[in-house]
Structures are given as structure tokens and as C-alpha cells.
Amino acid sequence: MELLPRSPGEFGSARYWDRFFRQRGQRPFEWYGAFPELCPVLHKYVRPRDKVLVVGCGNSELSEQMYDVGMCEDIVNIDISDAVIRQMQERSGSKRPKMSYLLMDVLQMDFPDAHFQVVLDKGTLDAVLTDEEEATLAKVDKMFAEISRVLQVGGRYFCVSLAQTHVLKKAVKYFSQEGWVVRVHQVAGSGDKQQFVLPVFVYVMTKFRKIPGSAPQILEICPEEQDKPMRVESVERLVAAVKDRQHYALLCSQLSKTPCGEQVSLDLCDKESGRPRYTLHVVDSPSVKPSRDNHFAIFIIPQGRETEWLFGMEEGRRQLATSAGFGRLVTVALHREQHYEGMAGIQAELSGKVMELAPPGLPARQQVPFLSVGGDIGVRTVRHRDTSPLSGEYVVEDVKGDGTCYFRRLVFLCNRNVVQSEARLLARTPLAGQKKRRKDKKKPGPAEPPAAIDKSYLCCEHHKAMVAGLCLLGGPDPVPALLAVLVVGLGGGSLPLFVHDYFSQARVAVVEIDPSMLEVATRWFGFSQGDRMRVHISDGLDYVAKLAAEGTILQSIPAQYDAIMFDVDSKDLTVGMSCPPPAFVEKPFLQKVKTILKPEGVFVLNLVCRDTQLKESVLATLREVFPLLYARCIEGEVNEILFCQPSPEGRQDPTELGARAQALEGALRQPGRPWDSSYVLADMLQAVKIL
């Protein structure tokens, strides 16, 4: 039996609806949910004494159930289908004496002005507004004008809708321009009985007298999981908020039916501020054989560890899900702007929401475990937050790592999942004679002086590789007597600090474009300048070009540097290369770099490039300028460290590199000087390949 119309325009035809209800018979047809789902919203606003008009009533049981539960009794139902009106009159009959059914068109009603306190529309607007043709929009304007006419000031128009974009925009714009207050409620789903994948919404539009002039629009949205409405600034923002909820519903529907081939990510936002509170990644593991207890689990990533490879990269999360042994794992990252009440609080907050992401085949009433590292949510303390005109908003934060170690990090919030700089903190030790802190005393707060930085420890693997690249310098001595190093990109300063402290004769020049970073490095990362360490606030491109020009004009000036290191990030996130900016690897500029490098020197470049074609182009350009090129990939990261030398005569095989690395490490590991035992220079150069 075919009940659907041949074209959307038939939804406005009385003939179509007569045929529809004759064919359907007495079975109620509930557009967009039944009374139990709509009741919580209607109950907030409809009073027992209200006079209610239901437009396009069809054979829905909504009016009957509102009457039967005592929500209200003075209800008038209208429809353009004579067949359904006669059907409903027979069905209600004498059971509901105060409720009536009338054959009437919502576009031309016979009621006097201001006759009702409530107008209820369940799917009628969606049926009328099937397109945005001029004739259709004119019909909708007439419908809205009639509803406005018969509704009292202070009365409400309830429109139950799927909130298609053109429908929502039309309704909200029309009534908000008339000075009405518009609030959009999302209706709670009805579980397995839900007829639509998309969520159902109720527009609650309250009539006010139109104020001459430009009165502010009042637009609000009230999601299903909360009672308190959220104010939005514009129709566009309201439409976007509804779209977010529709996309989420589609995602949940998809995840409930089939395993996801690719990882799915989404943000859950704070109810008050609207800012992201949790970032979720849904990871399916087809290799895990399902059993009753391993279908589904939630993994809470400790605060501050969301940037680690295991949690922050797609391949890492896949490995985590497989090793955890669950068919579907949802990882949950906690945001630094939010406060959390421990693991139990997070579990209580997320339990209902994460079940909407459950995999197909999850047994009923299955208990879903919440997992974490060490059973806690980690520690994150924001020490400093500011905005730089060049780098944007950034934070300096202390986080607890794996075990008992704490780390200080610099993070640019434009790319919040990337740690810009990192340093290990030395544990606080009480001074001689100082009493041990009582357990019940307040813990140190952000206002206290920062803990000392462990300058002997390089947190970043790519920094370790860059330092190891100094083994490529020629000469009989593992540590050159006088070493001139240029570092472009300061960050927290750990790389130039390490070179300065462990190469006791090195003279280090650092170029940093952002003066804010010098202040951050000095105040929060233990960086300091001196006779052998100078920072130049300048664009690295300009600084190198100036040095190269001086050497060309004054030919008596020799090439200056034994080593040049580039560790500078790109602010343009649209390019497939985040380090360095593209201008730093263009051939004319690289030739200037070569000009200021000694013939036996080494140019070390931190390359972070996800675009394969772009990466091949960069490598080709480097080979044109530097005849000898080595590469060292950083395991588990996108970083690749390139060691470039101006002469092919300095080529060394892996055995020679290993021997030089051991000699250099022996020279740097002096008695009384701390050294990270996990840092083995030879290991850093083992995987080096010649390009």
C-alpha cells in the first residue's frame, strides 16, 4: 500500500490526506514522536485552563492523551481532510465532551482574533514548507499570519519539527522579527521505537507585542539533556547549534548499526560556557574477537597526556584499543579550561552520553568499564596564560607524566594537541632544617615560584636527534674547541640551553621572531642569556639573509657557523607542513644558509610534513643545495630530522657515525654533570639514512 505522495507538493493537498487516512484506517499516525516524548516539553508551558488549537491534527492521539492526563481539556483540532475529521469525531465522540474536531484550513481559519492561548503544530509546517519556491513561501507566510492572529499576546505557538534548515530558518526569522521570543527544545529520543534517525525539535514561540524600532531578538536552545536554555546571538548560530545535534544523532545511528572503518571524533561541550569539555575518539578493533565482556569500554586519558603518541595519534589509539582487548574503545581527552571532580565524577557525567556511541550487538544491561592509566585522571596546572600578537593564545602548564615525574609545557592553543616546548621539573626538596609540609596543608598553587627546570633532560626526541647531529662535524676532537651555533626558533629554550651547557666552549646565537617567547622561556623554562648565549629578536629569514649579504659584500668575512639548527613552526595550519614555514626551505634561502655555514659544518632541520608530494619537493630542493644529506625519522612522530652538509667529502658510514657518537657522549658526560641515562647518542644515529 503506497501512502507517500508522488511529489512533496501533495503534502498540502486535502485530496492526498483524504486518501492517506482512508487507506491507513483507524491506526493512529504519529508524526515525529508520540505523547510520552513530547509531554516533558508541553508540560513546562501548557496550563489546564488554556484554550488550545491543534492545526493539522490528522489521526494522532496527541490531543486525546493531553485531554486524558488532565493537561488541558479545551482543545480544538482542525485538519483539511474531511475523512480524518469524521474519523476522529467518531473516535472521540462523547468520551471527551470539551474537545472538538473541525474541518478547516490553517491558511484561512474562522476563529476570532486572539482566541487561543496555545497553537500546537505537529509536523504541519514541515508538510507545508516542502521547498523554497515563491508560492510555497507565500503559503507559509499566510499560515504564520493566521496563527499569529488567533493567538493571544503571551500565548505560545508550539511547532514540532525535524528542523530542516530551510524550515527552521523561516520560522525563527519570521517570528523573531515580529518580536516573539523563540526557544528551540530538542525532544528526548524514544529508544527502539523512534521512527526517525534525526532528532525531533519543538520550536516554542511566545507572542509579544511588536516594539517599534530595533528591539533585540531573544533566541534560545534547550538541549534534551538539560533544562536550562542557552542564549544564542543570531539565527545563524541557532541553526548551527541544531545542525550539531542532528549530525550527532546521525553519527550515533551509524555507530549503532555498523563498526566504523575510520576513527570518529567529536567534542562534548560544557553546558554553561559552550566550550569543549571532552574530546572523544571512537576506535573499533576488527581483530578483537567479541565476547560478552569485551564489546565496549571507555578510556579516560589523564590530563596533560593527550598529546602523547598513544593517545594523540590515530595509529596510537588503534594500538591502545587492540592492546586493551575491546571491540570498541572510546578515548576521552579532558580539556584544560575545565574542572573535573575525579574519575567517579567523570564517569557519572559521561555514562549516559557514551552509551549513545555503543557498538552493535552490545548485550542489554551490559556494564561498560571506564579505564585509565593508574586509575586516576592525572594532574594539570595552568601556570601562565597569555596572548601573543604573533603566536596567538598560549598556555604554560605543569602536567604529571607516567610515574612520578612532572613536566612543564608550552602549548599554542591554535594547535592545542601539539606540545611546542617541554621540560622536566626537578622535584622540590626541603631546605636544611625546614619542616616537612603537613598533609592537610593546601598544596602549592600557581602563584608560587615555579619548580626548577632539569636542564640535563631533553624531553623531545627530535631535540635529542638534533644534538646528536653535531657528531657529523669534522675534526679530530669529538667536541670542537670553539663551536659556533645558530638556532632559529627559541620556544622554551631547551635546545639552545642544552648545547650551551654541555658544549662548554660553544657560542650560541638564537633567533626568535616573537618577543613573548623570550619572556616565556626566561620566566618559565629556566632560560638565560650570557656571554656565550644571545637571543636576537628577528625574523629568521631576515637574519640569515642579512648575514649572508654581509659575507658577500665584505668577502674577508669567513662563513660563521659550525652548526645551524632550524626548529621553527609554521603558523599557517592550511599547509601540509607544520615545521618549518615553506619560505625556510625555498632554494634561494637555503643557498643563503649554506653561505653562512662553514664548509665542514652541518645544517640541522626539523621537518614535520604530512604532505608526501610537498615533502619530496623539499628533499629535492635540499639535495640541490647540500650534496650530502642524512635523515633520521622520529619513531611514532611525524618529525624527520635532516642533517645537511655543504661538501660530499664529509660522508660517514654508520660505523664511523657510531664511533664518533660514542666519543662525543664520553666527552659530554663529565663527573659531577647530570646526564640522562636513557639518552644514548649512538642510538640516535643508528637509524640515520643517507638520502
Automatic annotation (TrEMBL):
InterPro entries per record: Lys/N-term_MeTrsfase_sf, Methyltransf_11, SAM-dependent_MTases_sf
Segments of this protein annotated with the region Disordered: 430-450
Molecular function per GO: methyltransferase activity
Biased composition (Basic residues): 434-444
UniProt KW Nucleotidyltransferase keyword: no
An individual GO BP term: methylation
Domain Methyltransferase type: 53-159
Any coiled-coil regions, as ranges: none
The entry's keywords: Methyltransferase, Multifunctional enzyme, Transferase
Classification via Pfam families: Methyltransf_11, Spermine_synth
One cellular component term from this protein's GO annotations in UniProt: cytoplasm
UniProt record similarity statement: Belongs to the methyltransferase superfamily.
Listed name of the protein: eEF1A lysine and N-terminal methyltransferase
Species per Swiss-Prot/TrEMBL record: Aptenodytes patagonicus (King penguin)
